[in-house]
Amino acid sequence: GGNSPAPPAPVFKPTINTYSPAPAPPAPPAPVAKPWSPAPAAVPPVSNAVPRPFGSSAPPKPTGQGATRGNKGDATMNTAVPATGRIPVCSGCNLPIRGPFVTALGKCWCPDHFVCANPQCGTKLLDIGFVEEGGYLYCERDYADHFAPHCEKCGQAIIGECVNALQKSYHPSCFLCVQCMKPIGGTKFHIEDGKFYCEADWNAMFQTMCSSCEFPIEPGDRWVEALGKNFHSECFNCSTCQVNLEGQQFGAKGGKPYCKKHAR
């Protein structure tokens, strides 16, 4: 007799799963700055309708986003009336300024009124710069002492850009991915065992990836495990005709799935 026919290519039936890893913890609310005010005798009584110049600062932006708190700035001394010809008005005393004046943040001040808003300080800000918080100007020392959040990692006051994550604050240079050691900034991040990972490194180390489209298989996605690989259900297709093979018999050639017709 003739040779026996070659055995048919093996046929596999995939295992279909619904991927349901532990859900990611919900994003916590943005931390609330701790209120501060000086001793009652240090500030004259004010109406409830008027903002106190030395109260709590504005809340930071949401978790995981870079938030600029305490805008640092410099001032300029002017000796001539602006080119517009309009007499400047002091933002401190609200009176017209007839001589030299200071400009900062688009506003004008009498030189003697351009001072730290902390009534216990009153340091002139022209030569040392200032930090703006809640519409008021402070010397850097007072801002650091009474308004600035402190970095969870290094413990130092944060003046300028601040990253808020999990109800804690960090300098951008301290908020790093533990894998690549690059700043995460205001981009998306993940936590494993209490450690921060950037999106790319977390996907590479912890996420199940689809072998077809190479995108992550997200929580709640239907997926197929076959040929020692993982696929989105909609990505598990015949390598020749692209017919979907979810729940169907299929053949394998070269580690790729094929429908029964093209597996021969």
From TrEMBL:
<feature type="region of interest" description="Disordered">
    <location>
        <begin position="1"/>
        <end position="78"/>
    </location>
</feature>
<feature type="compositionally biased region" description="Pro residues">
    <location>
        <begin position="1"/>
        <end position="11"/>
    </location>
</feature>
<feature type="compositionally biased region" description="Low complexity">
    <location>
        <begin position="44"/>
        <end position="53"/>
    </location>
</feature>
<dbReference type="GO" id="GO:0030036">
    <property type="term" value="P:actin cytoskeleton organization"/>
</dbReference>
<dbReference type="GO" id="GO:0051371">
    <property type="term" value="F:muscle alpha-actinin binding"/>
</dbReference>
<protein>
    <submittedName>
        <fullName>PDZ and LIM domain protein 5</fullName>
    </submittedName>
</protein>
<dbReference type="GO" id="GO:0005912">
    <property type="term" value="C:adherens junction"/>
</dbReference>
<dbReference type="GO" id="GO:0061061">
    <property type="term" value="P:muscle structure development"/>
</dbReference>
<dbReference type="GO" id="GO:0046872">
    <property type="term" value="F:metal ion binding"/>
</dbReference>
<feature type="compositionally biased region" description="Pro residues">
    <location>
        <begin position="22"/>
        <end position="43"/>
    </location>
</feature>
<dbReference type="GO" id="GO:0001725">
    <property type="term" value="C:stress fiber"/>
</dbReference>
<dbReference type="GO" id="GO:0031941">
    <property type="term" value="C:filamentous actin"/>
</dbReference>
<dbReference type="GO" id="GO:0030018">
    <property type="term" value="C:Z disc"/>
</dbReference>
<keyword id="KW-0862">Zinc</keyword>
<dbReference type="GO" id="GO:0003779">
    <property type="term" value="F:actin binding"/>
</dbReference>
<feature type="domain" description="LIM zinc-binding">
    <location>
        <begin position="149"/>
        <end position="208"/>
    </location>
</feature>
<dbReference type="Pfam" id="PF00412">
    <property type="entry name" value="LIM"/>
</dbReference>
<dbReference type="InterPro" id="IPR001781">
    <property type="entry name" value="Znf_LIM"/>
</dbReference>
<keyword id="KW-0440">LIM domain</keyword>
<dbReference type="InterPro" id="IPR050604">
    <property type="entry name" value="PDZ-LIM_domain"/>
</dbReference>
<feature type="domain" description="LIM zinc-binding">
    <location>
        <begin position="209"/>
        <end position="264"/>
    </location>
</feature>
<keyword id="KW-0479">Metal-binding</keyword>
